[in-house]
Write a structure and sequence with these properties.
single chain, Rossmann fold, globular, alpha/beta, five-stranded parallel sheet, 334 residues, 13 helices, six-stranded mixed sheet
């Protein structure tokens, strides 16, 4: 796949440190072996070294010895991590005793390593639920300054290359936030613009979707998208953003000219921001199934460092691809 190949080539340039907390999970180990062999990132595995090496030998994984392996029971900077955790969460009542217990949990250890500057990003979820992966991330890594909400973007590769950027589009939020406010929707648009630049490699033309185009309908839901468009432009004037806009006006040139004459985005959008999670999730799945698009993601965005959650049904190649994506995100943040 051209996009993933390009992302992998980019990842190789950065040598980002990506931590995989599920060190005993078979697919994760296989992906770590491939990522290390291909030099997509410097892999950090969390788990007891002897057990990981035994699993690597069982599955004939030759490159696992080249990874860094951190034992969660005895991490090298355990006391430093405990102090950092207490400092970050003392306002929530976190004690040293509780922090000492949490730091032995690989998912918590991974996020604290990132916060301490000992890793650049994390990929998890092959063996853990989304909530368990994201909870420590929200508590210790938190969101990037100026962004209060985490969202999920999909890179959509379409068979028909007349749409988007030569058949590539970015959809958000399709995975995380059920009902964003106007301000949160604006943040999602800005974060997706940055994701597009870093991962898709083209300049985003962002359409803020609605069931109305430029005042063709009146409703509080339309008002929210109008306000979000204005706020997003204020948050990042370097991004091309327009709305509110119906989907056909956003992606089909003749309809865009008719419904939104003078718009630089109408009919040319390559990034679609959906007004809520229902429409976003439904929209990407319809395009995936009915148009035969390939959907890569969700790529989580808005975190101060990239932490990406896998489906528990993921393949080894899914994990390898997400390691490369996370490495590119980390480089983009730095």
């Amino acid at each position: 796949m051209e996009l993933i190949s390009r992302i992998k080539e980019q990842a190789k340039k950065y040598s980002m440190r990506i931590v995989l907390p599920e060190g005993y999970e078979e697919r994760t180990l296989q992906a770590a072996d491939i990522a290390t062999q291909e030099k997509l990132a410097k892999i950090i595995l969390i788990g007891e070294k002897a057990r990981i090496m035994e699993l690597a030998e069982t599955h004939h994984l030759k490159h696992i010895p080249e990874t860094e392996i951190i034992d969660p029971a005895h991490p090298p900077k355990k006391e430093e991590y405990i102090r950092l955790m207490v400092e970050l969460r003392k306002h929530k009542g976190l004690t040293e005793e509780e922090a000492a217990r949490l730091v032995t949990n690989p998912l918590y250890l991974a996020t604290v390593m990132i916060k301490a500057g000992d890793a650049d990003g994390e990929v998890a979820g092959a063996g853990n639920a989304t909530g368990d992966v994201l909870r420590p991330a929200f508590q210790f890594v938190k969101t990037v300054p100026g962004i209060s909400v985490v969202s999920g973007a999909f890179l959509m590769i379409l068979p028909d290359r007349q749409y988007g950027h030569n058949g590539l589009m970015v959809f958000a939020d399709c995975a995380v936030h059920p009902d964003p406010t106007a301000h949160e929707l604006a943040e999602i648009a800005v974060a997706t613009g940055h994701t597009t630049r870093v991962l898709a490699g083209f300049e985003p033309r962002i359409a803020m979707l609605s069931f109305s185009t430029k005042g063709s309908a009146k409703h509080p839901l339309v008002d929210k998208v109008e306000e979000a468009t204005r706020k997003a432009r204020e948050m990042d004037p370097t991004l091309q953003i327009d709305g509110e806009m119906q989907a056909d006006a956003a992606i089909i040139e003749s309809i865009g000219k008719q419904k939104a004459p003078g718009s630089a985005i109408a009919g040319r959008a390559n990034v679609l921001i959906f007004p809520d999670l229902q429409s976003g999730n439904i929209g990407y799945k319809l395009v995936q199934r009915l148009a035969g698009a390939e959907a890569i993601g969700p790529v989580l965005q808005g975190m101060a460092a990239p932490i990406n959650d896998l489906s528990r049904g993921c393949s080894v190649s899914d994990i390898v691809n997400l390691i490369a994506i996370t490495a590119c995100q980390a480089a983009g943040i730095k």
